[in-house]
Amino acid sequence: YPMSFYEFVLASGNEPLARAFEQQVRNDTVHDKLSELYRQHLFVGGMPAAVNKWFSSQSGIIKKTREVRKIHNDLIKGYIRDFGKYDAKNKFLAAQLEAVFRNIPKQLSKAVDTNVKRFQFSQIIKGKSRYKDFQTLIDYLASTHLISKSKIIEGKPTVPLYANEQDGRFKLFVHDIGVLHALIGLPYPQIIQQAFSYKGYMAENFAQNEFLSAGVLSTYAWQSGNTAELEFLITNALGDIIPIEIKSGKHTKAKSLTVYMENYEPKMAYKLCDLIGGMRDNNTHTRPVYYSCHAARSLLMSWDIDEYF
């Protein structure tokens, strides 16, 4: 996987801030500094060459962002070149892989202030509109770790979560948030500004990557018709299904999470957003979105949430 956000903080050279992150310190000073690095991470991502350039370059901010974006674009060119190795005799197949890969950020960026939607198969490749037409292509891209799936569960989820999976119902995310924004062509100023940096798809793709790097094997989303949807469900060490709401900003009102909790009464829940956190309302833990990895590890490793947070 690319470097996680914690590794990005370490790479910044700010050791006290890295310790504060590791210890999950929550105060205004730490939050402001980590939020600033989080927004930088949304542009730079976690590919080592890009991270190294960002923290070592002596260039001004404009030139430095161009240097980092060039690294992203060179990586993308390399990925596309490698698609041809999947079947060297079939250039058409390589073109199809590229079409799917480039379409994922297009679909993600449409989810500006709402949840990322189920991946749509139509209008990617002419004459193909069914899951079966894309299954091999998507499975190959997932096997390279360039993309990842989050399967969508409808109705009441049961353990194990994989028993609820339905073919063709999933979200797709890009492996690195910096590469994602290079594919979209979103410039640094728009990413770094508060109004842009917490758009739904950014935070959701960021959390997906953090969960996977923390050791979550598979992620799931939840939907109830067209009325409610949650970004993530994760099974904790006790086998409980824990809902996780990702909020794009400081607004923490979570209608879908309320619906889920009223219907299924989970033992606890998370809201990950742009707040210091620490509130506990109806056993719902509010945490900064940049602490996504800690939320995942608390569920995977701790038998008691209070032992971890």
Description:
The protein has 14 helices and eight strands. By secondary structure, it is of the alpha/beta class. The chain has an eight-stranded mixed β-sheet, sandwiched between helices. Strand 4 and strand 5 form a beta hairpin. Helix 3 (28-44) crosses helix 8 and helix 5 (61-86) crosses helix 8 (177-184). It is globular.
Rg calculated over all Cα atoms = 19 Å
Integer average pLDDT: 90
Helix and strand composition category? alpha/beta
The helix/strand order is: HHHHHHHEEHHHHEEEHEEEHH
**Cα distance spanning the termini:** 26 Å
Strand content: 5-15%
Tell me how many strands there are.
Answer: 8
Specify the biggest β-sheet: 8 strands, mixed
| Overall form | globular
The low-confidence runs, each spanning 5 or more residues with pLDDT under 50, are none
Helix content: 40-55%
Order of strands across the main sheet:
2-1-3-4-5-6-8-7
Discrete helix count: 14
Could you give a short description of this structure?
50% of the residues lie in helices and 15% in strands.
Could you outline the blueprint of secondary structure elements for this entry?
Elements: H1 5-11, H2 15-22, H3 28-44, H4 48-56, H5 61-86, H6 91-109, H7 131-143, E1 147-154, E2 170-174, H8 177-184, H9 188-192, H10 194-197, H11 200-214, E3 219-224, E4 228-235, E5 241-246, H12 255-264, E6 269-273, E7 280-281, E8 284-288, H13 292-301, H14 305-308
Parallel strand pairs: 1-3, 5-6, 6-8
Antiparallel strand pairs: 1-2, 3-4, 4-5, 7-8
Helix pairs in contact: 3-8, 4-5, 5-6, 5-8, 6-7, 6-8, 11-13
